[in-house]
Amino acid sequence: LALPSGIAPGAAARLRRCASSSVSIPPPRCLLGPLEAPLRYMFGPGPSNVPPRILAAGGRPIIGHMHEEMFEIMDDIKQGIQYAFQTQNNMTIAASGSGHTAMECALFNCVEPGEPVLVAINGIWGERVAEIARRIGADVKTLVKTPGGYFTNEEIEQALAKHKPVLFFLTHGESSAGLVHPMDGIGDLCRKHNCLFLVDSVASLGGASLFMDKQNIDILYTGSQKALNGPPGTAPVSFNDRACKKMFSRKTKPVSYLLDMTHLSNYWGCDGKPERIYHHTGPVSGFFALRESLAILAEMGLENSWKLHKEVAEYLHEGLEGLGLKLFVQDKNLRLPCVTTIAIPVGYNWREITQYVMKHHRMEITGGLGPSVGMVLRVGLMGYNCSKTNADKVLVALGDALKHCHKSKV
Ligand code: PMP
Question: Where is the Aminotransferase class V domain (predicted)?
Answer without folding.
Answer: 62-386
